[in-house]
Amino acid sequence: MTDKQVVVIVKTGIANIGSVVSGLDRQGYTSRVIEGGEEVLTAKHVIVPGVGHFSQAMHHIREHNLEGPILERIKRGLPTLFVCVGLQILGATSEEGDFSAKGLGLVQAPVHKFPPTVRVPQQGWNRVSPSAGMKFVVEGYAYYSNSFAFQEFPADQGWNIAHSYHGVPFIAAFEKGPVLACQFHPELSGEWGQALLARWLSLSPSIAASDWATSSLTIRANLPSASSYPEKQGVTRRIIPCLDVKNGMVVKGIQFQNLKESGIPSERAASIAASDWATSSLTIRANLPSASSYPEKQGVTRRIIPCLDVKNGMVVKGIQFQNLKESGIPSERAALYQSQGGDEIVILDVSATIETRKTRYDTVQSVRNVLSIPLTVGGGVTSVSDAQALLMAGADKVAVNSAAVKEPALLTAMATAFGRQCVVVAIDAVQTGPQKWEVVVRAGKEKTGIDVVAWAKQAVHLGAGEVLLTSWDRDGTKSGYDLELLLAVSKEVNVPVIASGGAASEDHLADGLAHGADAVLAASIFHYEEYTPQQLKQGLKARGLPIRI
């Protein structure tokens, strides 16, 4: 392995580094994770991956003196890839930190939260539409896991941009020369994402540096002639709010007499940025398509998720976790389901909680090594450190069930550490009466007396970014999802809901999606080779559902 084949990953907090490392390994590259130092400037290829929270990422960058080296690397035109929150920190500020934390400022625009009219976080595959001239990003579906995005972008800095749609148009990626920033996760975007990584990794630093200048000059050279512009078109007039400050407070009077306090400077500035920046920028600066230009059903697609229930390192299946039969090796099953069109994989260690042990990290690592799609892992998670270990082993999201019921604050702690997009609350439900369901824990062995809908709402409020909702009554029965349960929960939360328990046919999956599910999970029908994910997806797409084929 030569030095040319080493990629440096800059640690900016807790991220799904295991997935990034695995993606590079499939490209024939090794990786080295660093927290700071001059290697940011000397490495041939550098990746700045996503972390949970904008403010925490910027704190980590400044604490480890990374701000200057990262910006200098970009200035020199060296191959650098920013992913998810890694893209967002290139902006001026973010709504995720109430506009108080400052980003690297390479892009003079704020990062905004998606509107409440859609599920947030955006979890799933969405179409990427690149502008002409992009070298790395091509048309296709990419995997997103984000609550915030650039919804405007300066049009005068020489960047080529790609866009997607989730309630509003947003920036999917931007590139210039060898510098590429992706809101999506290329390492989790299947063959499409692996091809993108290959294109970016193929750049050598010497070629990349010359391309930076060439691409910038080309962008400028392709401008229309001066005569084609309207007579009064040019630099816009600016509206500039002024904060007169005295003793740390905004004040106002007449000729600086009889001054009255008018607020805290940071709050006033943030309020102005949040309310006025978007409106003025979208008119003056943005080059995103209007929302009305997108097809009605364009946006995040519905997901088909094969589930691997695992015990003692083997895939198993039974009814309500009883009379379990082995159904294969996890890594082999995961690779098969990915090749057959699965949108992501869920691994649940079905005996970890009962046996008071942790999920086997070697199982997670072996599965991650063969996957280039998202991986959710649950079972035996009782702390933030447990979740962190799973993320480092190769999980992208961590599901927590019994421990969250016992200690709800665990959801908040995990969301604070990793971002809510990494936190899945798994809820097992038994029906106790008409429109009433009770939460059960410890693999269905203990009733809690907790109402399922109330617990789902509380869990999302505490920090869960996705709900994995299993009808315990129907698990393994092939009788279809509990549609009333799905509808009751999905109406009360604004995060994605995964339907689980009882699926045995295309009709069952379609019913689940029609009753509020954003994704549908199944196990038996895949393990027993009754269907492949791709067969089900083709049938669902023929019904008019937004599906990635």
List how many beta strands DSSP finds: 27
Query: Overall mean pLDDT score?
Result: 86
| Helix content, binned percent | 25-40%
Lateral strand order in the biggest sheet = 2-1-3-4-12-11-10-7-8
Instruction: Specify the biggest β-sheet.
Output: 9 strands, mixed
Report the β-strand fraction as a percent range.
25-35%
Oligomer: single chain
Task: Count every helix, treating DSSP H or I runs of 4 or more residues as helices.
Answer: 18
End-to-end C-alpha gap: 36 Å
Our Rg estimate from Cα atoms comes to 24 Å
Alpha-beta classification:
alpha/beta
The dominant shape is globular
Low-confidence stretches: 205-238, 272-286
Description:
- The chain has 549 residues and is α/β, with parallel strands linked by helices.
- The chain is built from 18 helices and 27 strands.
- The strands form four sheets. Strands 2-1-3-4-12-11-10-7-8 form a nine-stranded mixed beta sheet. An eight-stranded parallel β-barrel has the order 16-19-20-21-22-25-26-27, surrounded by seven helices.
- Strand 26, helix 16 and strand 27 form a beta-alpha-beta unit.
- Helix 9 runs parallel beside helix 10.
- The longest helix has 20 residues.
- The protein starts with 5 loop residues before the first strand and ends in a 7-residue tail after the last helix.
